[in-house]
Model the fold of this input.
Amino acid sequence: MAGDLSVRGVSRAFGGLQAVKSVSLDIASGEILGIIGPNGAGKSTLFNLIAGQVRPDSGTVAFEGQRIDGWAVETIARRGLVKTFQTSRPFGSMTFLENVMVAALSHASGITAARRVALEQLETVGLAGRADVPSAWASTGQRKRLEIARALATRPRLLLLDEPFGGVDLPSVDSLIQLLQQVRTTGVALLVIEHNLEAVQRLVDRLIAMHLGEVIATGAPEQVTRDLRVVQAYLGASEAPHA
Ligand SMILES: Nc1ncnc2c1ncn2[C@@H]1O[C@H](COP(=O)(O)OP(=O)(O)O)[C@@H](O)[C@H]1O
Ligand SMILES: [Mg+2]
Done:
């Protein structure tokens, strides 16, 4: 099925530190799955293991039925599994449109096609009006949208978002949730790491909680955020959940 992912028993250590311990998860076509957990839980490492930036010590990752663990990031991205960065880094001197065109060029057949795809994606994320403005002028909310437009321009079927709501003000959180739900209706599956529990609960179909490299709870968002182990994990990390 398009965009489906199957992670089985994936582990990764850095020196003596077991950052991810035998994690398994599945994402169905067009599903929105959230990952929560206190700092250092292993969320970003898990993303890097899926997207190919980090190789697993053991376990397997399969995308659309094919094993991709050990593949290069670019090869995985070309297959339709794309990760956006925790801190978005658009090229400030380039316009919004040019930034998205650069991403589109990885797939489009030429400049004209890339321009068309880029305009289409700026429209999708509500930034068409900013097309010719230097991206250095973007607000935090606009930068997040630009990052999503750049990712969409590569035509992904599974999009990995690392803290998309980080630093986004309250009104922008609402419109970002709407945008991501709209992206899902186009058949793109989403895997979302998020610190803002209130926002993530409104966005996802299912939630996975991680702590010290392991999955400690999985299920419906309201179930997982109330799970005693999850609450204790956040308290132990002396940072209360935001919800
Ligand atoms: N490249 C790396 N080298 C060494 N340690 C790392 C590396 N990446 C992550 N870690 C460690 O792995 C643990 C999990 O980190 P991370 O996956 O970033 O957690 P999270 O995203 O949940 O905050 C942390 O203790 C972190 O310091
Ligand atoms: Mg992280």
Remarks:
- Residues 14, 17, 19, 37, 39-45 surround adenosine-5'-diphosphate (ligand 1) (CB under 6 Å).
